[in-house]
Amino acid sequence: MRILSLTSDFSKRHNWGHQHFRDEIARQHDVFYVSPDYLLPYGKFVFADRAVADFGPFDFVLTVSARFTRDWLRGMEKVKIPKVHIALDYVSAQPFEAFYDGFLDRDRYDLLFARTLYELERLKSRRAEPVYYLPYAVNEKIYSDTGLKRDIDVSGVWSQGRGYPYRAEVKGTLRSLGRGPNACRVYYHKCQHEEYVDVLRRSKIFIGSVNKFKTLTMKVTEAMACGCLYLTDEPLDLGAQGFVNGKHLVLYDGMEDLASKIRYYLRHEQERMNIAKEGRRFVLERHNNAIRVGQFTKKVTTFLEEA
Predict the structure, then answer these.
(1) Spelled out in words, what is the top-level CATH class assigned to the domain 152-286?
(2) How far is Cα 8 from Cα 34, in angstroms, rounded to an integer?
(3) Residues 268-289: pLDDT tens digits?
(4) 157-179 in b/e burial notation, b at 16+ Cβ within 10 A?
(5) In sequence order, what are the residues at sequence separation of 6 or more whose Cβ sits closer than 8 angstroms to the Cβ of residue 267?
(6) Domain 2-137+288-306 has CATH 1.20.58.2050
């Protein structure tokens, strides 16, 4: 298929996984990019109808994220070919849903995709467009186990904010484990992409902390693909994506349980490694970007055939 992608370049942002997914779409299809980061022949704004006329024909138009698209995109209401959008941050926290609904109403989309179950249910309850579940996946060539010495016992890499209410507590727990004669080797900072991947490859255990909507993030597939034991509080999407507690990853319930499980799995190396290995195998087989783009393509193709 030939796709017109009207989406910002995410490669320099902290959510690199979104860019990796779009890169995989471009590997499987003929994708032409028009945005302020790629080609901007129209001045301040990108006019979608002109881009379709100037660079077409296309099978459909694709956008990702209202937040990084709305301000510079114009003319979508005049586009006569199907319009597909992958939603990011469609959440009830103000002002995101109202902002997003305004974007979707203005540009009149035909097909929507949600990356978490929470967003899927919110979109279905508020929107008339068909919506499909498209959970996060991983580029296994970038996120890989390269056999580096795992000299970090436990790590957590994230930013903190109101959307992630437990991360400050988790950081405090990790800090406490890094003190005293029996201290763990701990890494718990925000970092750039290359350093983040290096930390994952060197970590025995990686800590997840769900957001207030309790959704899985890209970190689950990224950490597990790198061969870490992924230790997290329970997310909403866990079963829907096929992950099994104690087989692919390990769940904790509160800070005392988190500290206890960290100590346990550092002492029981073979058990930890077995879970990490099984988690990595499962992610590579079920949650890599090539598979996920195939699922995306199948849904879009069916929609186009039935339209």
Answers:
(1) alpha beta
(2) 9
(3) 999 999 999 999 999 999 999 9
(4) bbeeeeebebbeebbebbeebee
(5) none
(6) no
